[in-house]
Write a structure and sequence with these properties.
globular
């Protein structure tokens, strides 16, 4: 089982005194959580604990740009994002994969 996080990225086309935020996509993270045991009854609580521990590694905000988590969930080991599936269907290969990372690597990043 893996953990999937989706973010929203925004850029400020205005300035600090009069911001104009424009959505510019986001990232998708497929996170390997070694040794994690999925428990249907506790999935929501465990998922929220994972996201809470990663907010400061993923989210940021300054006067020029910001990124924040918009969704998350547990997915099977062979999960592909919609964008990856579309690339396979139309191009025959995945040129721009989602970020795949272990939770240990993500926790090490600043």
């Amino acid at each position: 089982m893996k953990f999937h996080i989706t973010t929203q990225y925004l850029e400020n086309y205005g300035d600090a005194s009069k911001p104009y935020w424009k959505c510019k996509g986001g990232e998708e993270y497929i996170i390997d959580v070694p040794g994690f045991k999925y428990d249907h009854e506790m999935a929501e609580k465990k998922g929220q604990m994972i996201v809470d521990s990663l907010y400061d590694k993923i989210e940021y905000s300054n006067e020029h740009a910001q990124e924040y988590v918009v969704g998350w969930g547990f997915v099977p080991d062979d999960f592909q994002t919609l964008f990856e599936r579309d690339q396979l269907e139309y191009d025959g290969k995945v040129t721009f994969p989602a970020k795949r990372i272990s939770i240990d690597e993500l926790m090490e990043t600043a």
